[in-house]
Amino acid sequence: MKLGREGRLLIELLSFDDLQQAIKHGFMLQLGHLSAKSLIKRDKMFFHIVLERNMQLHPRHFGRNLREHLVSKLMKDVEGTCSGRHGFVVAITGVDSIGKGLIRDGTGFVTFPVKYQCVVFRPFKGEILEAVVTMVNKMGFFAEAGPVQIFVSNHLIPDDMEFQSGDMPNYTTSDGSVKIQKDSEVRLKIIGTRVDATEIFCIGTIKDDFLGVINDPTAV
């Protein structure tokens, strides 16, 4: 995805709370670059790191705009992807170096080693996240915080909330004052993560102080 200059400037002006809201609703990958240093100081889920990648470029892009084509392709290929080791790449913040190209025999393509800086998002055990509920069943509920999927078991939901089946499955308190259903916004705590080569999956809980529903879509 090629990000516009306006999107890059906008994201740098957002507060940390705004960034959390963007992650929660999945907007971060569309908005673009952000101020990495401020994020590092204020939350452990965001990291500013240096990575390397071999980029292949077609001969038609050779010329005085070669660097621009490489950077554009790098952003399109990398932003929004997930690495089990580093996390979700939110945005590329700069290109440190582009090495000498190596011609691939029989194709005409040239491979360039590129070293770049980027902001990655990776949640860890103990982190507090705000997420949007995507599915509810008798086993618990699934929620998403941007690109991260989180499962909260019914054992990790407060004891005074019971599962209610029907057209809109939900967990509701005995007095009906609090309800968790699809599209509800919840604050949860991550208690475990599973890391694969291209995916990060989390287990969360709302059975703790100051956790639970923060916005009910059915509330007037």
TrEMBL record:
Residues 123-200 form the S1 motif domain. It is found in: Nucleus. The keyword Transcription applies. Keywords: DNA-directed RNA polymerase, Nucleus, Transcription. Residues 52-108 form the RNA polymerase Rpb7-like N-terminal domain. One of its GO terms (molecular function) is single-stranded RNA binding. Its main location: nucleus. InterPro entries: NA-bd_OB-fold (IPR012340), RNA_pol_Rpb7-like_N_sf (IPR036898), Rpb7-like (IPR045113), Rpb7-like_N (IPR005576), S1_domain (IPR003029). The keyword rRNA-binding does not apply. One of its GO terms (biological process) is transcription initiation at RNA polymerase II promoter. It comes from the Eukaryota. One of its GO terms (cellular component) is P-body. Belongs to the eukaryotic RPB7/RPC8 RNA polymerase subunit family. DNA-dependent RNA polymerase which catalyzes the transcription of DNA into RNA using the four ribonucleoside triphosphates as substrates. This is DNA-directed RNA polymerase subunit. It comes from Acer negundo (Box elder). The lineage of its organism: Eukaryota, Viridiplantae, Streptophyta, Embryophyta, Tracheophyta.
